[in-house]
Amino acid sequence: MIIAVDGPAASGKGTLAQGLARHYGLPHLDTGLLYRAVGVATQAYENDEQFETRAISAARALDATHLADLEALTSAEAGNLASKVAVIADVRRALFDFQRSFATQPGGAVLDGRDIGTKICPDADVKLFIQADSKARMERRARQFESRGQVVDRYALFHQIEERDARDMHNPNGGFYKADDAHLLDTTQLSIEAALRAAIAIIDKSM
Ligand code: C5P
Q1: Could you point out which of 6, 13, 136, 176 has its C-alpha 20 to 30 Å from the C-alpha of 116?
Q2: Rounded to whole angstroms, how far apart are CA atoms 181 and 143?
């Protein structure tokens, strides 16, 4: 069983995908981490003409060991860098096989990202498209950073999320839109537990 979970930054898709993986006993891949790892590896070239070629090399060299430093990968800066490398077609191409082999392992998997239902697993058994309004997403992300002891500028964070959404949605190489056969789940008013219950109900009904 392949479950595809897509949605914008801080929509709750990662937490939801983790919960689904636990519930159905499936392995889970947060595909945003791949783009974040490439972004972080290329950070030193952010304003350099080599940025693109360095990002492509980093994507081609990527393996699971690059995904271990969660603290560095989940920073706001890493998210921003990720969305900059994510517009490069050869970066997406280089990361395709990694995601595809994870998805097609025996028994299935849960993958979350932006283009799982459209590009990586158009053949997924169930597709969920998660949405939540920008203010709710900003507030969730702010609390996540605060729980790590970080000071958060909510105004700046809100704009950062909106900027990243815009870049992701207009990414010509992306595929960030709701697949026709994806189920829409709005989590603006839902707790983590309620969102998970709703997702399980959708999946059980469609299997
Ligand atoms: O999901 P997360 O916020 O960690 O993703 C970081 C960035 O990586 C996104 O803003 C997006 O630009 C990129 N991404 C992508 N395709 C995916 C997952 C993430 O383009 N499947």
Answers
A1: 136
A2: 33
**Domain coverage including residue 189:** 2-199
How many domains does the chain fold into?
1
Cβ–ligand 1 contact at 31 (below 6 Å): yes
Degrees, nearest 5: CA angle 158-79-194: 65
**Cα atoms found within 13 Å of the Cα of residue 161, Cβ hemisphere only:** 22
Whether 205 is covered by a domain: the verdict is no
Measured from the CB, is residue 113 less than 6 Å from ligand 1? yes
Residue 206 lies in a domain: no
Supply the DSSP symbol for 51: H
Query: Is 12 a known ligand-binding residue?
Result: yes
What ipTM was estimated for this complex? 0.99
Does residue 169 fall inside a structural domain?
yes
Index of the ligand 1 atom closest to the CA of residue 9: 3
Structure confidence by residue, pLDDT tens digits, 56-87: 999 999 999 999 998 899 998 999 999 999 99
Q: What is the pLDDT of residues 144-181, one digit of tens each?
A: 999 999 999 999 999 999 999 999 999 999 999 999 99
